[in-house]
Amino acid sequence: MSVTFTADKQLAAQLDAADPLKDFRQRFYIPSQDGKEQIYFCGNSLGLQPKSTRSFIEQELIDWQHLGVEGHLHGKNPWFYYHHFLAESTARIVGANPLEVVVMNSLTVNLNLLMISFYRPTKQRYKIIMEYMAFPSDQYAVENQVKFHGFDPFDAIIELMPREGEAALRTEDILATIEQHKDSIALIMLGGVNYYTGQLFDLSTITAFTKKCSSEIVVGYDLAHAAGNVMLSLHDWGVDFATWCSYKYLNSGPGGTSGVFIHEKHAQDNSLPRLSGWWGNEENTRFKMQKGFFPQPGAAGWQMSNAQILPMAAHRASLEIFDAAGMDNLVQKSKLLTGYLEYLLLSGARKDFKIITPADHAQRGCQLSIVMEHNGKAVFDKLTENGIIADWREPDVIRVAPVPLYNTFEDVWRFADIFHSAL
Ligand SMILES: *Cc1c(COP(=O)(O)O)cnc(C)c1O
Q1: Within a 10 A sphere around the Cβ of 82, how many other Cβ atoms?
Q2: Number of structural domains, the chain?
Q3: Integer Cα distance of 228 and 326 in angstroms
Q4: Among candidates 124, 121, 161, 163, which has minimal Cα distance to 142?
Q5: Do the Cβ atoms of 247 and 218 come closer than 8 Å?
Q6: For a substitution probing ligand 1, which of 103, 201, 245, 315 has the most ligand atoms within 8 Å of its CB?
Q7: Which residues line ligand 1 (CB under 6 A)?
Q8: Which of 302, 323, 344 is a domain's end point?
Q9: Is residue 314 part of a domain?
Q10: pTM here?
Q11: Span 303-330, pLDDT tens digits
Q12: Contact 238/210 with Cβ under 8 angstroms?
């Protein structure tokens, strides 16, 4: 749908009325202040609670209450097989086949587990390329993986820097860096959408180019800000591995579980080193007490502990909503919603702020990062006083993410209105 934006409030009402996903908002609890629903623009940080989450968790509590240990095999959703129940929906969100995904642990844990398998440096080939200003947890994990193998992080980690005066990275510069270091890079480890700038990297091009430079370079992505936000085709792109959390765009609760993708081409590769435990072993020989670990094929073979049923139940509630809405539809609305926000912000009289998120829809998801020239914190506090939940990053950035599942065009209009008067 293409729309000519205008600044009058009526357009917001029209867009909401015409929105095919408008009823999905009813499936979520919207936080409120003094009895008034807030404008919640922090779905990139902690997605809202689906009203169905409680009953998904309750079902498991009921089975535990009535069946005790028997719930493993005789519960409504037998816990022994629980991770299977999430595979298909998860695969749809990231563009994978079900064998390639598993839900387990939490994000940084998985990032470390995957680097144990896929960062296998040699004397010649040991470098990791990541983006400048990657999420702190990723920086710590990568730094320590490098040290764990006896390398010096200052030598082994190459950070992709934006050009002077720019905030986003140019794809051509990313490719040039890969080309330049193609004989010494072991791993590309990028955040799919950068948490700070909101830039979506061209993962398809980066993956293909890297593989063309050298088949020995492994490509992995942290999709914390991409899963459930933008279209992904991890299988077709030939990405080696990826991981993401479930509590941002995927609305599965604070500290929620994490998803992992491991490309089919590695599904049967038992030579990859991995940390192992009983849940990754073949299901039917797990208790035979034979020596030797026999991993299940695919991502499930990377599991260690038995499934964490309660957070995974919360995740299933959200996955069911994603299946009903469809990623295609969500992304279509998201582009309109974020484009509208961008239009309203830029059409105001004041110009003492800058949106550092790329204007190109192919290079972003829901989030816009606004750099304030002055009084940023005061403006942010004004927004908060007026019932807006957004995100403040020192020293001068306000991040806002209108989420297509539960945000409205009216939310966007009201946000822009309050923002402009706060300026
Ligand atoms: C949110 C986020 C994390 C958080 O990791 P946890 O292990 O879930 O605490 C890590 N990396 C990125 C890129 C993130 O956006």
Answers
A1: 20
A2: 2
A3: 10
A4: 121
A5: no
A6: 245
A7: 106-108, 135, 137-138, 191, 195, 222, 224-225, 245
A8: 323
A9: yes
A10: 0.97
A11: 999 999 999 999 999 999 999 999 999 9
A12: no
